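To whoever picks this up:

The parser on our side crashed when reading a file containing two proteins. I've narrowed it down to the boundary between the first structure block and the second sequence. Both blocks are reproduced below exactly, byte for byte. First block:
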Amino acid sequence: MAKRLDILVPFLNERESVAGFCALAGDLAAQAKERFGLDANFIFIDDGSTDGGGALYGEHMTGDWSLITLARNFGKETAILAGLDRSEGDYVLLMDADLQHTADVALDMIGRIIADPDLDMVYAIRADRAESRTLGRYLASGFYWLINMGQRYEIPANAGDFRIMTRRFAMALRQLRDQRRFNKGLYAWTGFRQERILYKPADRQGGESKWSRRKLIAFSLEGFTSFSVVPLRMVSLFGGGVAALGFIYGIKILLEVLFTGVAVPGYPSLIVAVLVLGGLNLALTGLVGEYVWSALSEAKNRPNYIIKSMSGPSAVPLAQTRKTGRASHDD
């Protein structure tokens, strides 16, 4: 029997790209069959779209495909997990629906992972960050430097979800049921042998990116609270440094009073101490609160997602979802 390639495509309000992606999907499936003997099966995950784009896949898609419609917007990280839970392929390829992930790069990754039996993942890293502002590049570099500090594994910079993995890697990833998911960290934490390639994304064909600056900051904070204790340690070290400086300053004041009789004005120094220590305590309290909220989210043990419906020629009945313990709802 031919091996199977499952292609997971999470999307949110990508109506303008449906026809173009379906054409790309047909070409990718044909070349995967011709060059590697793989039977391609597309799994689309509608992450709470409101533009009606999900219904258009039935008009344009051919071959083996299914559409998972989630009950609301759970986030791209969780939508990928929903697709992984339904995947049974020998290889699993992750792609975006906005046409920035090209068939040529996908076929290159497929060829690499098939050629090396010991390889379990190939991921693509953006080679062109010229459109990013200098400040943004520095902030991104600082983020990865901090989150990788003291880790036994490295979360690669500029690596997104455009990647292919073996079935054993996908099965291992499915075991990680984090509520606040940071897939970049989960890919690295899982381990196995991984290889990177460089690529230049194609231009977006329609719509806008769903990643605003506010969402990127929140996503980065989730990464820190999920995979790094460095922020807490940095604040602790800063607090220790402030306490040490305060102690030295107190000794200085005491010596001046004892040996020179100089009366040190108390109001300015008192205000500075109150502002510094008060601000530090508030920042530390907020940071600890983020970690507590992250722990509380995991402790609630809610399902990662809820499936509203499934459609398409390769769709699996929702009854099977209940048997595997995944939450779902029949229309």
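<<boundary where parser fails>>
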Amino acid sequence: MKIARIETFFVPPRWLFVRVETGDGAIGWGEASLEGHAEAVDGAFAALRDRFIGADPRRIEDIWQIAYRGGFYRGGPVLMSALSGLDQALWDLKGRLHGLAVHEMFGGKVRERVRAYAWIGGDRPDDVAEAAAARKAQGFSAVKMNATGEMDYLSPPRVDEVIARVRAARAEGVDVGLDFHGRLHRATAKQIAKALEPLGLMFIEEPLLSENAEGLVQLASHVTTPIAMGERLYSRWDFKAILASGAVDIIQPDLSHAGGISECRRIAAMAESHDVAVAPHCPLGPLALAACLQLAGCTPNVVLQEMSLGIHYNEGHDLYSFVKDAGPLTPVDGHLAIPEGPGLGIEIDEDKVRLADKDRHRWRNPIWRHADGSFAEW
């Protein structure tokens, strides 16, 4: 059995799907979405095709190691997102060959379902009470929202506004996580995190950028609210220092950015050895979410799963737009069941994917500026 084709598809609103096919017609699907950089990831597949057309798709670990180490330059969001999509597709293909869900090939289920959360409030959080009520009506018991808009080094923290939004959401009967998107700097982060401590948040996410590891350590010494981060880390080596620092309580590797199922399984095992929980980052498409659920099915320290249903980025197309059956990815009572079908456990509508790819999206995140004209973190 040999890989005959590796195809990529630009799928709206901002996703990149991967399809692997063998010479005898076996197929597998994955997702290599890197929001705003689909063209770069697509370009990285040229090297992967050169390496792996003609390779045995069942040798997933060997392919992973060659893809990561064989090009001399390694790591980073572009190369790792390409590898992530390929890895997911290979596991999907292998599962279909054997009639097994991916979690079965990793030792079987440790849970039947995982708690899910959805987004409310948009990039600059607003109308959160109404949005939280709508999510509660959908069955969600947990939501996440951005904590603030743009913030400079000495922006007044506006803590009362943040607290009011959290209380408004909590009043609708849902638990709340706050995402700071790395918009804060150390001085403001300490003030806001301390003020939010009595609210009993599920977590504060990316209060500082992940490259400011020493700042995260200092912040963790000031507050008891769990700190979550990791969507901008791309391998076990990126996570190693953060885990060793003790600053983070929940890591959020993205299975479409951090080496796919293979690598995120290893990252989760590292986190377990540090008594750290895993809540995979996934504001992406159905293949990314299906991969996350396969990981959740066989990984004891996965505690929570993000999903993009109705997220503010999904303009024109939503989570279920390119699947034949939304059932395996539909939350029930605020939880997502672990898909039982072979491979990733979902069926992609290939005709719709190929049609969408004819008009390739060019999604870009917005650029924000402060009042003085300087760049602001989005």
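After patching the parser it read the second block fine. The chain has a mean pLDDT of 96. The radius of gyration is 20 Å.
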